[in-house]
Amino acid sequence: SPARKFERSEEPVTYDDVAGLKSAKQDLQEIVEFLKNPKRFTKLGARIPKGVLLVGPPGTGKTLLARATAGEAGVPFFSINGSEFIQMFVGVGATRVRDLFKTAREASPCIIFIDEIDAVGRVRGAGVGGGHDEREQTLNQILSEMDGFEQTEAVIVIAATNRHDVLDPALLRPGRFDRHVTVDRPAREGRLGILKVHSKKVPLADDVDLEELAKATMGYSGAELQKLVNEAALKAAREEKRKVEMEDFYYAEDLIVMGARRDEQVDDEE
Ligand code: ATP
């Protein structure tokens, strides 16, 4: 129904909540400035991208970064997930997209975030059925909404994917998602930053060495680092400690590494 509400984010987050990702933040700064004061740009005829694609592996902070961009600019944030549309009846996805853009225009300036855009935005016409499916209608609706709005409406669409190679080229055309921002797994300094952000409210024992943990967690995503801190805190709580100790972090690291191995085995069996 048209009255259906879209998720509007609760507590605002800012770039301070996003550790590392320096160049991604820099790339998005222009969007922040635009959303803060769209007229300053449109008066001079300066063109800001309508669509920005965040590209990177799962759990690297794409959603967080998009929310924080809205937070920095002080504008509303509306989000949907591309995978929501997969189970829908024909026409429902397109209607939902139309409602979303309508709501956003009325709240402009603002950000629309489409997570997992590849779920609807895969290259079209491939395979059986040849194309009038739900997914394609939804994608067409997204494209026509983006083509339809003027820059002066100050709605920026940010989409996230970890597979931009599978996206329909129509999505990447000028005036659509023509700006790409890479969101990589964090290097050591980034990992340290993420560990600091997530242990801010955790009482750490003196023996806890976050630098050491940052060194030992090569390949971890932000989401995995958050999990590391949380598992360590859970372990300490179960043992009724007053502070989280280094051994709790090592325990958590083992858990996560074993979990990852288990996932790999499942993959192998498939
Ligand atoms: P997915 O592709 O799975 O949707 P994503 O890239 O959108 O993942 P997020 O959902 O933003 O990742 O990240 C998951 C959680 O991991 C965040 O809520 C946050 O707590 C933590 N996280 C990830 N990256 C960072 C970061 N750079 N700084 C701080 N926290 C981070």
From TrEMBL:
Name of the protein described by the UniProt record: ATP-dependent zinc metalloprotease FtsH
Leader peptide range in chain numbering: none
Cellular compartment(s): Cell membrane; Membrane
Assembly and binders: Homohexamer.
Domain AAA+ ATPase: 48-187
Functional note: Acts as a processive, ATP-dependent zinc metallopeptidase for both cytoplasmic and membrane proteins. Plays a role in the quality control of integral membrane proteins.
Binding sites annotated in the UniProt record for ATP: 56-63
Family statement: In the central section; belongs to the AAA ATPase family. Belongs to the AAA ATPase family.
